[in-house]
Amino acid sequence: MFKIRAPDESPNTDGIHIGRSFDVKILNSDIQTGDDCVSLRDGSKKVTVQNVNCGPGHGISVGSLGKYQNEQPVSDIVMINVRNPIIIDQEYCPWNQCSKQNPSKIKISKVSFKNIRGTSATKGVTLLCSKGVPREQLEMSNIDLKFNGAAATARCHNVKPIVKGRAPICVA
């Protein structure tokens, strides 16, 4: 078993950071960090993360995309018994160092979740967007996530995603 440890209060301590990589396997590991357990950045393809214990940080994250031109998508996503398979959280406040009184002023645009399948350990998808700025072009297509054998749902706040093909239905 591979182990990574960092104090839970230490900021920006990703356990494993992957970008522009193909056919990476992270297996049978214990990763305890204050930030992302495993972070997938642009160009990550066919990455397997299996039997990995994450905590107390954020788990496995796909993020920090859209900052630079010519970024490559993260692709080939299959989730098995994942607690929070898809989350956008614009009320995210690490270590309670911010105020949720003021909505985020970060504009989310041109985000797509496509061809994601697997099982969820929770009811599904959370899209919690800021009421302070409009969202543009948030697309969900061909998403086949199951929770206890039934289709997963999406909890959507301040956003109506463009749905193409199969995708979780937004509920309040």
TrEMBL record:
GO molecular function, one term: polygalacturonase activity
Alphabetically ordered keywords of this record: Cell wall, Cell wall biogenesis/degradation, Glycosidase, Hydrolase, Secreted
Broad class of the protein's primary localization: secreted
GO biological processes: carbohydrate metabolic process; cell wall organization
Intracellular or extracellular location(s): Secreted, Cell wall
Keyword Transferase listed: no
Active site: 58
Record Gene3D superfamilies: Single-stranded right-handed beta-helix, Pectin lyase-like (2.160.20.10)
Pfam annotation, one family: Glyco_hydro_28
InterPro entries documented for this protein: Glyco_hydro_28 (IPR000743), Pectin_lyas_fold (IPR012334), Pectin_lyase_fold/virulence (IPR011050)
Family: Belongs to the glycosyl hydrolase 28 family.
Record-given protein name: Polygalacturonase
